[in-house]
Amino acid sequence: MSKGKITRDNILNTAFELASENGLESLTIGELAKQCGMSKSGLFAHFNSKDNLQIAVLEYANAVFTQRVIAPARLRESTTIEGKLTMLLDNWLGWNHSFQGSCMFLDAWKETSAESTPTQHVLKKTIASWIEYLRIQVAKGIENGEFRQSLDPKQATFELYGLYLSAHLFYSIHGQEASYQHFWSGVKRLVADWK
């Protein structure tokens, strides 16, 4: 691995941590340079603009999300789609709650006002990919007979994502225990309806 690649990865790791604590929009070249012990011009040379920096952080966050949320569920030898979904959902909540109850993807969605920005485009694509991954899992459950044939995978995923958004909100208002309890109670009812 080249020195430039190592430096860039270290910058992105620091940027990821800062954005996780304070939100993506708060991330600036100046603050990041300070945290990395670099000059602004040295750091700017890696990204050339704040938009490019934010996009690189979102892509880095997506790679971390895949590693922490999706990869463990893929590696686990689950005999059912329901078992795989349960692990994915548990990992997903853990992802959310590992950032002081805040999900960078949701925070960035709130903070980015104009849909036409390059950052918003990458964010929308990232979230759409995750939603599609969940939809595919539900569709597999229908194909193998775990879930009823009349189940609409898109509607099921919509409702599942709604539970996650509610859990995200409840965490900030009522804390982790209430968030988990309501989330899993909702998931249990939802999955029972899928069968």
Can you put this structure into words, describing what you see?
This protein has a single domain, classed as Tetracycline Repressor, domain 2. It starts with a helix and ends with a helix. The protein has 195 residues and is an all-alpha fold. It is elongated and about 60 Å long.
The low-confidence runs, each spanning 5 or more residues with pLDDT under 50, are none
How many discrete domains?
A: 1
What's the total helix number?
9
User: How confident is the prediction overall: mean pLDDT?
Assistant: 84
CATH uppermost class: Mainly Alpha
Q: How far apart are the termini? A: 49 Å
CATH architecture: Orthogonal Bundle
The helix/strand class is mainly alpha
CATH topology: Tetracycline Repressor, domain 2
From the alpha-carbon coordinates, what is the Rg to the nearest angstrom? 19 Å
The CATH superfamily bears the name Tetracycline Repressor, domain 2
Query: What's the shape?
Result: elongated
Q: Please report which band the strand proportion falls in: under 5%, 5-15%, 15-25%, 25-35%, 35-45% or over 45%.
A: under 5%
Largest sheet: none
- Strand tally, please? 0
- The portion of residues assigned to helices is over 70%
List SSEs in N-to-C order: HHHHHHHHH
Descriptors:
Tetracycline Repressor, domain 2; 195 residues; 9 helices; mainly alpha; elongated; single chain
